[in-house]
Amino acid sequence: VPSDVQAACRDTVVTQELLKEGFHRDLLVKVELGEDAGGCAVAARTRLPAGIYVDPYELAALQQHNLTKALLIPAVSDLEAPEYLATPVVLLLYLEAEPRCSRCFHGSIPVHARYRRPAEGTEGALLILESPEVLLCCCHGDLAAECWEPAEVGAPCLARNISPCQWHSPTHRPVHEELVLEVPVGLREHSSLVCALTLLTTLLCAGLILSATCRHGHFS
């Protein structure tokens, strides 16, 4: 990007944060635009790696109560699949305007880590979450051509009083830091112990069920 274009186009600042701990987190995305959005819809598009997923049923419940707005591509995925059998998905998170800042937007959505193969000598694995791409959907046509370009996004525009229109992405994309998520993994050296305890627990539960059936069951 030429230096004069970079000077004319004020940087859009994107920050993301993972709240909570463990396998179940909340992804918080904040965006500060380089210019006033002026009624445009603002969204953040990011690629979720195979080790992270969004529950579509949980998302539908949240959207029903207007707690978040998002689109998953593809919309359906195997929620029970481990990380090594899953595929990445694209998340389009619609952002809400901050009440006291005309250029500031935010959005959050629950994300979940998938189970991974047991590892040897470590109790944690690292997942890299790429920085989101900021998208604008405007119908008034006031975006500067040197700062914003049409983007290929097959998603509706959910801004108030705006019919579906063309999404745009910034022409100047400064480098953002990636977000690193550490998730717990099982230790491979514990596999024999886990299998033995699982087998004993299964036999104990089966014995209790059989005992209760013999004492309280009615047999003809």
UniProtKB/TrEMBL annotation:
It is a single-pass membrane protein. Keywords: Endoplasmic reticulum, Glycoprotein, GPI-anchor biosynthesis, Membrane, Transmembrane, Transmembrane helix. One of its GO terms (cellular component) is endoplasmic reticulum membrane. The keyword NAD does not apply. The keyword Amino-acid biosynthesis does not apply. It is found in: Endoplasmic reticulum membrane. Pathway: Glycolipid biosynthesis; glycosylphosphatidylinositol-anchor biosynthesis. One of its GO terms (biological process) is GPI anchor biosynthetic process. Stabilizing subunit of the glycosylphosphatidylinositol-mannosyltransferase I complex which catalyzes the transfer of the first mannose, via an alpha-1,4 bond from a dolichol-phosphate-mannose (Dol-P-Man) to the glucosaminyl acyl phosphatidylinositol (GlcN-(acyl)PI) intermediate to generate alpha-D-Man-(1->4)-alpha-D-GlcN-(1->6)-(1-radyl,2-acyl-sn-glycero-3-phospho)-2-acyl-inositol and participates in the sixth step of the glycosylphosphatidylinositol-anchor biosynthesis. Probably acts by stabilizing the mannosyltransferase PIGM. This is Phosphatidylinositol-glycan biosynthesis class X protein. It comes from Smithornis capensis.
